[in-house]
């Protein structure tokens, strides 16, 4: 969908096509919205089924109740049926016929005491460097070819008229924004894109609202740097969003708060910041060295660290989970079903 706010657009297709390249077949267990709502027919490449076909494994991007959106009756204005469909899939596949089920809790919304975590045919994955004790790390994948093709010198040489950019929504980021971005924005030219509905406390910050997905790369491509902002629950587990690879692959240098667990595994040490003053200092240094050797070396270091997110590594993690869930372990899983995205 052209207007989707879905953050998974930068990595979902990468993962799906990667899984298919390993010899698995995928069926999306939902209505084909691309064809129904936009007329885009992708059935020559992908398959959809809003019933309950025979599958070997169920893969869910975990959904949770959002009042007024997916908790309302089906058919009402503004209703999204992801939560209802997810429950139907769990009832049929996970509980009724004991289908191996992978729950990718991308937003860390599955409660720690949820009974689903104790179901023997369920594995929970989190996109975190230090996931919950009963979860497995499955990071947001980045295509290996995209990392290999990125040239630090070329990226550093591109004009960067904007000093600081941020792309992302407000959700649970106010404290991080207060500490790292807002004071920095008072000192440098900047731009914030995304859904920010309560901005009165930052009258000096330039918010431009949501932008189309293709424009994300363009904005990062004009900015010297960004600041990685995450909710506290992400910071505690070292969960980094898709914004890190999006920025790096566009040549936008990511400054990373030290409050994020394993921050030193995400960016070179020169890009770690403790507060807004640190960020301003780093940005002024970057502006003075833009396009030169030190700038190139920092981008090269960021690209090297992106290998942690490489698609091949994440595919290995998915297949290890499937092997663990499938009995006997040596039996190949030939069909992996994607739940409501």
Tell me briefly what this model is:
The protein has 341 residues and is an alpha/beta fold. Helices cover 35% and strands 15% of the residues.
Would you give an account of this structure?
The chain is α/β, with parallel strands linked by helices. It folds into 2 domains: 7-141 and 310-338, no CATH class; 144-309, Glycogen Phosphorylase B (Rossmann fold). The protein is built from 12 helices and 13 strands. The chain has a 7-stranded parallel β-sheet, with helices on both faces. The chain has a 6-stranded parallel β-sheet with strand order 9-8-7-10-11-12, with helices on both faces. Strand 1 (25-28), helix 2 and strand 2 form a beta-alpha-beta unit. Residues 329-333 have low confidence and may be disordered.
Provide mean pLDDT, rounded.
93
H/I helix tally: 12
Distance between the termini: 12 Å
Main structural class: alpha/beta
Query: What's the CATH H-level superfamily name of the largest domain?
Result: Glycogen Phosphorylase B
Portion of residues in beta strands equals 15-25%
